[in-house]
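User: Please predict the structure of the protein below. I'd like the answer in structure-token form so I can feed it into my own downstream comparison script.

Assistant: Understood. Taking the following sequence of 505 residues as input:
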Amino acid sequence: MKKIFLRMMKYALIAVVFFALLILVLWLYPLAEPLTQKSSDHSYIIKGVNIVDAEADTVLHNQFVYIKGDRIERIASDAFTPDDANMVQVEGTGKYLIPGLWDMHSHLAFQIAPQVIMPLHIAHGVTNIRDMQGIVNINEERRQWRQDILAEKLLGPRLIGFADEIVGANYDEQDVVEVVNRTAADPNTFIKIYSGILSERYFALAKEANARGVVFAGHYPNAINPIDASNAGQRSFEHAHLFIKHANPLADQNREYYRALYSDEEVDASDRPSVVAMLEGFDEEQFNELVDVMVKNETYFCPTHVTRRYEALAYDQDFLDDPNLQYVPPLVAMIWSDDASGMHEYAKPDGMQTYLEDFYTKGLELTGRAHDSGVKVLAGTDSYDPYSFPGISLHQELEELVKAGLTPAEALVSATSEPAVYFGVTADYGRVEAGKVADLLLLSKNPLEDIRNTRTIERLYYNGNQYEKTDLEAMKTYVADNASGIKGWALSVKMFLRLMKDNRH
């Protein structure tokens, strides 16, 4: 027996050493060089194109659009030929021109974003994002990325704004005044509110942030009435559970449960109201009250319906076998699979699968009703949450907003002009107009007829350069290559070790 034991120990030691060496090799394996932007001196004239005006829900037919540098120099309904030796003529007859898209709830998430996240955004026409923090602290990287993207050195969407601080949950020990002061030093950043913040610290942060002109946005705090949070100046609420969890007779009991939980008081699972009962007890008056306050305060709503759709379909193997998983590194795919398994187990008790499906559809309904009442809706995806793919899922979210009752034009506004209003950059972004930045998508089909036509991208104009369909496909191939094989495992090891070193969640 002793010999057998010693032999087993020997093999176990060999296995440990082999595994350690494998991890070391993968850690040392070099990352692919990030993609750079094109660099050319060309200007462009798109001839006879149809310009989509989503705000007016109309199309301006047979227009001539002259792009010089990174700006739209001129738009005219009559043919003209600029005196420009570097000009490239592009045939736009029968095609449709829209502004570049925004994802207003995105996550660059990891330090390997330039290899697997950023190119997917650009390949699918997402030229600007609001980044809502990463799994690890990547503030230093994001500031460098932002500079390199603006300098056309790095291919990726512009980081018009990103959350450099999180307050709530396991970040509640931070001094909120110091958090506000750090954020105030960079006008392109904001504070992300997480669900776990308690009222004393939340309202102290709100007071200080309002005094310093610092934006705070994110989850509505579980222990606080969202009406009070809106009145305190929270810029946006994220995720489609907002109205459902507030507008029911059990909402106060639910908030009290979370207040006690986050205060480390003794709680019992029975103290928490049934989620099914909260959904079934929807209260029209409470819903209208919150909607009216959000309209008055101009509190934005970013529902990320693709995440609720995932929860409702976590049992569906066809959904889980999404071919877009080719763009996701193995570690992320494993985490998503584990999350889906957990969601499937959650739905097993009688009635819970029906609840998840009803929660998803009720969320769509309430988004549509809130929008009809004047709540400003932003398109966002929570990308890099399970089955939310960078760039790809923004088009899915637009389809979800149309399911919610928005017209295709209104859905398009939520991903173009409304984000520009949110950030106060309407002079540069949000519409196809002379003088604005030439972030443009040339589509083969009209998105006002069918929102799915935002996917029919033939050319992208970004930072003064033209990307043809072959260029966009090459970006996707680059990401798929990085996410697969030894490269994918090397990325995964680097992500995991960084996560162990600098976890933000």
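That's the full token string. DSSP finds 20 helices and 15 strands in the chain.
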